[in-house]
Amino acid sequence: MSERPFLPFALPEIGQDEIDEVIDTLRSGWLTTGPKTRRFEQDFAAALGGGVEAMAVNSATAGLHLALEACGIGPGDEVITTTYTFTASAEIVRYLGADPVLVDVDPHTLEMIPSLVERAITPRTKAIIPVHLAGLACDMDSILAIAKRHGLRVVEDAAHAFPVRYKEGMIGTLASDFTVYSFYATKTVTTGEGGMVVTRDPGLAQRCRTMRLHGIDRDAFDRYTSDKPGWYYEIIAPGFKYNMTDLAASLGIHQLKRAQAFKERRTRIADAYLEAFADLPVILPAGPTADRDHAWHLFILRLAEGAALDRNRFIERMSAEGRIGCSVHYIPLHMQPYWKERYGLRVEDFPVATKAFEGAVSLPIYTLMTDRDLDRVISEVRRLLGA
Q1: What are the backbone dihedrals phi and psi of residue 383, each rounded to the nearest 5 degrees, phi first?
Q2: Which domain, by its residues, includes 362?
């Protein structure tokens, strides 16, 4: 058994088109933000539809920071988000001197509960950050309705959620102020590192474009390709260094073309898991519904009470005996030292997220998995838990 090759938790699928585009960029002499980045932005906006504008950045974390800054979030403000997420969803609130307010999650979807969001609103609340966990669309109708009633901004953390449909439209085309995507190496499409900020508001878009590159009134591509002097620029705000490079965008251009095929493969893997584990002592992840789509960036299985192994031992044996990599998504923020200590958070205030974390394990789900790899994971999970 130990002689089998190790099956990693995730691998990106990079094809010859991506490689050729990167080589073309290297030969072009334009490596930083330039024509390939513009092309990727335009292609991404067109893929979403809905008349949105798209701005490429060097990470989803950067994108979330830009979005909140453009929304005017600052010291003394509060932003509501979920405790069951990666720290980036909350840390960007602290970048601006504001305070994240965490809410517990639905026991089925592990996403924020709209009624708890509304209950958490105070006079200091300025925005809501819903997180489309694992790629499943949140209940955006309820969240947007709450935001409208209370005059709040909405910035969707869609790091896991491309491409995802919500009712008749796509996540990214709803009435939110911003939607932010991630193209990290393990995501549904990748640029290695990178992200995309999407909005329908031209004023907000312009603020993000300015702030993503030092607060300069025009980016390097404009400066060196327009008829204005290339050396002249104006700083209109103390901005950041968040621009995407053309090298990264070269990957994104062709990853985007394959996004639907990638999604279909992930869905087939998820469907196979859902069928294979239905009789095991586990809690299966929430799947898509008629109104809410799923990108299946993650497949989060939860070991139920009475399972033969606890979560930590299960992961150890999957690795040591099955030679299969697993992970955990996520250690809730209320359990992390910084957030717990700064805001006096207690596990008993987040019972659903706490309980979910104790049994949560993410299984491999990526497009380079072969049917043989899939069968191997299923066989090993059933071997460890089936008895």
Answers
A1: -65, -40
A2: 259-385
